[in-house]
Amino acid sequence: MDNAVVQKDLAFPIVEFQRRLKAVRQEMAKRRLDLLVVSTPENIYYLSGYHTVGYYSSQFLLIPRNGDPIHITRGIEETNVKVLSWIDRSTSYMDHESPVELLATTIQSMGCANSTIGVEKISWFLSILDYERLKQLLHGAIFEDGSHTVESARVVKSNLELECIRQAARIADAGMEAGIGQIRAGANENDVAAEIQRVVTRMGSEYPGLPIFVASGVRTSHAHATWSGRQILKGDPVLLEISGCVRRYSAALMRLAVVKPASRELERMEEVSRKALENMIEAIRPGRPLEEVWNVWSRTVTEGGYEGRFKRTGYSIGINFPPDWGEGYMLSFKRGETRTLRPNMTFHIPSLVKVFGFADAGTSETVLVTETGCEILTNCKRQLFVC
Amino acid sequence: MDNAVVQKDLAFPIVEFQRRLKAVRQEMAKRRLDLLVVSTPENIYYLSGYHTVGYYSSQFLLIPRNGDPIHITRGIEETNVKVLSWIDRSTSYMDHESPVELLATTIQSMGCANSTIGVEKISWFLSILDYERLKQLLHGAIFEDGSHTVESARVVKSNLELECIRQAARIADAGMEAGIGQIRAGANENDVAAEIQRVVTRMGSEYPGLPIFVASGVRTSHAHATWSGRQILKGDPVLLEISGCVRRYSAALMRLAVVKPASRELERMEEVSRKALENMIEAIRPGRPLEEVWNVWSRTVTEGGYEGRFKRTGYSIGINFPPDWGEGYMLSFKRGETRTLRPNMTFHIPSLVKVFGFADAGTSETVLVTETGCEILTNCKRQLFVC
After folding, report:
1. CA A102 – CA B306 distance, rounded (Å)
2. How many other CB atoms are there within 10 angstroms of residue A136's CB atom?
3. Closest Cα to residue A143, out of A128, A157, A154, A153?
4. Which domains does chain B have, with CATH numbers?
5. Residue B53 to residue A218, Cβ atoms within 8 A
6. What angle, 0 to 180 degrees and rounded to 10, lies between the N-to-C axes of helices A189-202 and B189-202?
7. Can you spell out the DSSP letters for A177-206?
8. pLDDT (tens digit, 0 to 9) for every residue of chain B, 387 residues total?
9. Whole-angstrom distance, CA of residue B91 vs CA of residue B72
């Protein structure tokens, strides 16, 4: 492998990655971390450009406060370090070897065996078992929760990142148009989903963090339902939620369609979901606590006669790998969220009005917090689509 | 929500779920676990039928040694318990509440606060942070690693499960045919991926655990590369790996195509990958250690002049949710794997010959271990496809 001539394919210029690394190291200094073990695929990509679908095998990016970062990957994934990462130092384990033992020996070789080490305790991809073993192997180290060290930088987007999200929004727009174009009595949920996937993939949309959502009839009221082979009938609601993904950055979009005739109840639900979204968007501006904006949504839905007290509505969106396309664990519009909006944050805001056993109505946009308010990045007529 | 009339949509008859639960409880007894906290989405589905794409929010299935199991989900996901699970007891948290606190109080209410509790320490979806908090909240309990308690049953498939995998194999076959049909000089990787997704989704294939893989040219040698907008050129290898997914059960299939003229080197690599797979398949029979079968692959590839010493080749396949379509963490063909094959185990076996910077050649089948040997479930001509 070492002799191959490698054509690098970096997602961003090196200065962009260096800026990100610097911001993360400042946060590490604040937290007095000597070393950060990054195990979240989004964070590894954010800092290095390296990514793979194969993150079901352990992988880490080690960020010392000073000195060069090091990748640890499964053997076959070193190809992706060479091609995709601006960071050249890497080591890898074979499939019969222990990733966490390699992690421990690498930390030792960096001189950090007795240091303060941050691990991402909220990360899905460092297991409890591996963490317990790591603590045994490095019994001289002090382990701290390093969660959100990288996210503290990720939550505000650079112009290069926004460019990806804008492109992703164009794809979500086109996917929505394609999906709505397929809806009619007698069509099958599968056919709608197939056409959306065909269109967005041809436009270069990458594999999404979540599948597209296509649900019809009562299935719209089953959370996160997607295509199931159900035939769409006269009068059925059809709820579509679609993301575009460009260089792993997503934008998403939700609309409700109905096969005519639309019932009065569905029309009313869609209207409430839409108004609640529009009221939220008007309320968005830098400095405002997210809870305050969520309250606007909650009030609108409650006054409209629906349940609006419990569910978050809207989450940060950016880099994504399955099983989520959002960054809701970083920041969401919900009760009790007192942190404030900042310019260049991006959100997907699905406003859902839910009646289990009947239907869910939903409307969303992907938005950018600007210096003065809010820019809507997705671009699709905001209405109930009667097909 | 409570007043809605619910039409249940169970993936399997209740007796199938009861059989699974009984097997898991026998394993719990062996391990002396009073309670098992199941957090792996595949395991929750296996035992209950409940599933959602929304497992990025915490969810648990609590299995006491005696008494009724209980679901814990995010509020909006209770809809899916009602529709998809044969288990009726459930409780849920709102988006501003703490899932792990609900987990602790639920365990207390079951009378298990001072019991021996198994948690799946290898599961991605119980974080270190939540586990540490759970131990604080239930300081009277004894926590054991409950990993593989459910998997010990899952690894051998029932006839109902095999029926799903057979259907998934038909879809993978059709997807492969559709993909190969798109390959020609001037075609774009995206178009190939779009057509495969269109075809398999129309056939009812559900969202896959991994995206389909479409890579051309030198990108075939970048592990897990998939569509990137690259234009396919004369002489290019194109590596396709596709899964079908039926009721969350997968089968997968890999083939190499080449836009003519095929180089002698590519032909040779494909031949070695194919022969190594065929030799493995001939070696598969119940009672044989997986390592022994892997040795056959390793020897064939090494004798063919390629690197065959380090990579696993083949993994258990069955229920899948992103980010993996395999069950490789349960059982893989690799060095040191002394466990033995048993009838009704299913595997996907991608035999890869890798030359970084040039190309990877690969051939695979999804297979079933029978009473006497091996049945091949996928059905696609086994050859280098010259397009």
Report:
1. 26
2. 10
3. A128
4. 14-153 (3.40.350.10), 159-386 (3.90.230.10)
5. no
6. 170
7. HHHHHH--TT-BHHHHHHHHHHHHHHTTPP
8. 555 668 899 999 999 999 999 999 999 999 999 999 999 999 999 999 999 999 999 999 999 999 999 999 999 999 999 999 999 999 999 999 999 999 999 999 999 999 999 999 999 999 999 999 999 999 999 999 999 999 999 999 999 999 999 999 999 999 999 999 999 999 999 999 999 999 999 999 999 999 999 999 999 999 999 999 999 999 999 999 999 999 999 999 999 999 999 999 999 999 999 999 999 999 999 999 999 999 999 999 999 999 999 899 999 999 999 999 999 999 999 999 999 999 999 999 999 999 999 999 999 999 999 999 999 999 999 999 999
9. 5
Whole-angstrom Cα distance, residue A103 to residue A101? Answer: 5
Please answer whether residues A33 and A16 qualify as being in contact, where contact means their C-beta atoms are separated by less than 8 angstroms: no
What is the number of other CB atoms lying within 10 angstroms of the CB of residue A155?
18
Structure tokens at A157: 């987007």
Q: Tell me the C-alpha distance between A347 and A326, whole Å.
A: 8
- Nearest residue, CB atoms, B96 vs list A76, A223, A335: A335
Question: How far is the alpha carbon of B109 from chain A, nearest alpha carbon, in Å?
Answer: 24
Question: Three-state SS for A353?
Answer: strand
In total, the C-beta contacts within 8 angstroms joining chain A to chain B are 195
Residue whose entry in the numeric block shows the structure tokens 């191959």: A4
Q: How many CB atoms lie within 10 A of CB A92?
A: 19
Strands (E), B220-373: 237-246, 249-258, 315-316, 346-355, 359-369
Q: Which residues in chain A have their CB less than 8 angstroms from residue B54's CB?
A: 223-224
Element (H, E) at B41: helix B41-48
End-to-end CA distance of chain A: 55
Provide, as residue numbers in chain A, all residues whose Cβ is less than 8 Å from the Cβ of B317. Answer: none
Retrieve residue A18's tokens: 């260096």
Smallest Cα–Cα separation from A169: which of A383, A382, A376?
A376
Cβ–Cβ under 8 Å, residues B225 and B353:
no
Q: Which of B197, B296, A192 is nearest to B189 (CA)?
A: B197
